[in-house]
Amino acid sequence: MPDILSLGEPMWEMNAIPAEPGKYLLGYGGDTANFCIAAARQGANVGYITRVGSDAFGDGLRALWQHERVDCSQVSVDPSASTGGYFVHHGPTGHHFSYARAGSAATKLSPSDIDDNVVERAQFVHSSGITQAISTSARAAALKLFQVARQAGVSTAFDANFRPRLWTVDEARDALAAVLPLTDFFFPSIEDASALSGVTDHDEIFRWAHALGAQVVLLKLGVDGVKISQGAGSDVMQMASFSVDTVDATGAGDCFAGATIARLAMGELLLDAVRYANAAAALTTTQFGAINAIPARDVVKSFLQSRV
């Protein structure tokens, strides 16, 4: 049985190659799919709860997960829906996404996709704001996943991943308020946290997140690293990022969360896990694509040894 379970939406990815206008690199992504691959490549035992279409992209995703040793026993193939996807374009202000996900197989996720027995035997479960946003039934599935995990004493991890094109701030806040009381590890980016909380000060963001019920908050700051609060009133710690030659930041935050939870599942202390995950996330930005760029454990360890 998987030690780590994630629920969400996998997608095909067409990543524009800046040096070759009109050409795209085919790959795969989706925030929770990125999380699963990141955790698996660090050596964790990972399973995915999702739905894909009965199409070439769904076949490609399942082949990828099997190759990466991500357990697919909780993956359903929907013959009546397609696998969603997105295009990535790069510009002076960063990367931009165009989506083709309406009516996708993953939007049909529902509480019936959650197997209580599988959840109860895990160490960690994970989901995200995107999972909540893609449909009402997927939002209900994420809540059930966390409820079952909490009742069974299984640790939970949630990534805010707020996407204003999917829903309103008020809708996202309502959904977040339901899941954060059940969340042990909360992974918001500074952009997401500011939008959802209505404040920009880091200390105020931590107070907001803890007041909603989150236990450990890992505030992702991009090139400035991550700030960590382990409870209301606790000292806030900052972990610096690693300097690399960045070409594409797609999926870096998902890689960070996946690597952190993987290392925690393998018994590492939180700060050690965060330093390792910072390195993994930095390396992800040195190549194009979300999943294509995620480094394996030996690559991350070699990188860390070079920075001692």
**Structural class determined from secondary elements:** alpha/beta
Radius of gyration: 18 Å
Tally of distinct domains:
1
Shape: globular
Please describe the topology of this protein.
Layout: E1 4-7, E2 11-16, E3 24-29, H1 31-41, E4 46-53, H2 56-67, E5 70-71, E6 75-78, E7 85-91, E8 94-100, H3 116-120, E9 124-128, H4 129-133, H5 136-152, E10 155-159, H6 169-179, E11 185-187, H7 190-197, H8 202-212, E12 216-220, E13 226-229, E14 237-239, H9 252-265, H10 270-284, H11 297-306
Parallel strand pairs: 1-4, 1-9, 2-7, 4-5, 4-6, 9-10, 10-11, 11-12
Antiparallel strand pairs: 2-3, 7-8, 12-13, 13-14
Helix pairs in contact: 1-9, 7-8, 9-10, 10-11
3D structure, described in words:
With 308 residues, this protein is α/β, with parallel strands linked by helices. The chain has one domain (4-306): UDP-N-acetylmuramoyl-L-alanine:D-glutamate ligase (3-Layer(aba) Sandwich), CATH 3.40.1190. The chain has helices spanning 31-41, 56-67, 116-120, 129-133, 136-152, 169-179, 190-197, 202-212, 252-265, 270-284, 297-306; strands at residues 4-7, 11-16, 24-29, 46-53, 70-71, 75-78, 85-91, 94-100, 124-128, 155-159, 185-187, 216-220, 226-229, 237-239. Strands 1, 4, 5, 6, 9, 10, 11, 12, 13 and 14 form a ten-stranded mixed beta sheet that branches. A hairpin with a 7-residue loop joins strand 2 and strand 3. Helix 7 (190-197) crosses helix 8 (202-212). The longest helix has 17 residues, at 136-152.
Q: What would the keywords be for this entry?
A:
308 residues, alpha/beta, UDP-N-acetylmuramoyl-L-alanine:D-glutamate ligase, ten-stranded mixed sheet, four-stranded mixed sheet, 14 strands, globular
